[in-house]
Design brief:
- It is a single chain.
- The chain is of the alpha/beta class and 509 residues long.
- The chain has four domains: 117 residues, Periplasmic binding protein-like II (D-Maltodextrin-Binding Protein, domain 2, 3-Layer(aba) Sandwich), CATH 3.40.190; 98 residues, 3-Layer(aba) Sandwich (D-Maltodextrin-Binding Protein, domain 2); 135 residues, Periplasmic binding protein-like II (D-Maltodextrin-Binding Protein, domain 2, 3-Layer(aba) Sandwich); 106 residues, 3-Layer(aba) Sandwich (D-Maltodextrin-Binding Protein, domain 2).
- Helix content is 37%, strand content 24%.
- The protein is built from 19 helices and 22 strands.
- Strands 12, 13, 14, 15, 16, 17, 18, 19, 20, 21 and 22 form an eleven-stranded mixed β-sheet that branches. Strands 2-1-3-10-4-11 form a six-stranded mixed β-sheet, sandwiched between helices. A five-stranded mixed β-sheet has the order 7-6-8-5-9.
- Helix 13 links the parallel strand 12 and strand 13.
- The chain is elongated, with a radius of gyration of 31 Å.
- It starts with a helix and ends in a 16-residue tail after the last strand.
Amino acid sequence: MRRLLALLLLAIATLIAWQAFTPKPNPTPPLTVYCAAGLKKPIEALALQFEQETGTPISLQYGGTGTLLSQIQVAKTGDLFIAADDASLADATRLNLINETLPIAVQHPVIAVKKGNLKAITDLTTLQASKFALANPDAASISKVTRKLLGDARWTTLASAATVMKPSVTEVAADITLGAIDAAIVWDSTVHQFKDLEAIEFPEGSGHRENASAAILTASTQAPLALQFARYLASPNKGAPTMQAHHFIPALGDPYTPKPELVLYSGGVNRPAIEKLVQQFADREGVDVTTVFNGCGILCATMKALDKTSGSKMPDAYYACDVCFVPPVADQFPEAVLLTETAIIIATPKGNPKKIATLADLAQPGLKLGVCNAEQSTLGFMTQAMLKSTNLLDSVMKNVVVQVPTADFLVNQMRAGALDAAIVYQVSIQQVAEHFDAIPLPKDIARAVQPFAVRKDSHHYHLSQRLLAYLRAHRSAFEDAGFIWKGESKPIPSNQLEIPAHLKGAGGS
């Protein structure tokens, strides 16, 4: 019996020792979130909800937006900055403290008074005649915004009449409930967080709107997780109900899913520039991006077919090879941003053995020519239009021995010695230029401009817009691939895209 007991004790001791020395899995490190004081209640509730659903702890630090911005600048740590106004985010961007920004709520300045408004405060003039408080404009967004709306002179007059200044909007609101002051300028959302207060609209504030937004800090070492939480806050199915329950107007982002699946349709010409960038974006956001590369004729036909199919998965974004292949799907993609441009050229083997100098030279007897298919691709469509506009279509097409959906097939066949010439994009031979001669063509008929568009009804509309922003932030990747950069241009309605005259009515547009 004693021997059995001794063995049992030895086994227990061994188990305890084994457990003590067995490495424990590292728990998920907390996300550090700097949050404007006025948003404390809904963000606190959403942080707890997110932690319960994902197991990710959230460490929240509150204060005036300006104060938090100073802390972030000094600390150079943290994951997320939830600011109460747009100007503070602009400051944070200028200081290189933030990257992506997701609006989560909309608010505007009001005068807060105790219910019943016994002091009959109706505007800034009657406010100044009362005992009132302001938040410090260097610490809190509400006063920073109000100062901008009023101008420095009027703000100075108002501030000099204030009974007290406090660091945050919630502190001045609390002083009203305590009876320490009669009124204060706060956010409309702040008023509803104190049951004894009511809001008085004033002209300078009532027409103005500010976004409360979540921005990913450049110092974050957990960007995918921080972006997941930001998407959670901005979503109509997770963040919005809680924001509304606390009397905020939600900004409404994309519906929340832990790992969204984005679909991008892209013309083949864009592949060398965007393939790595899209993967980098997916890794940073913690999402899946499926990119379908093909000729734009095929892509447009696919989208039209999908549009008529119930429950089909339309692409969220479309990066076309040229503006002429956006109008066919303009009802789904009503706005586009011009990102890049490339020339269309004649490519020949190094040394140009057939002595080709112009489009007309492609009609010489016995020439083996490769082109893209006019029905399947932008390049084929534009090639056909070029030949038609120069009255060379019939004579040149007699020499065509192969028609393919994308230019990379032609480049491969050229390198294999199967073709004497091919009409391709300049960027198609950029990475293997030592094997080819590039014969330039007239610029007015031989250039393609690549637009990027986001589908208006995409469930990942805002995520797709961030993909566009990511691409626009990496100009060098496009220039290294041989493109001419146009990405600083403003969005253009798809029905206002400028289609060259020789392409109008030719089929694609």
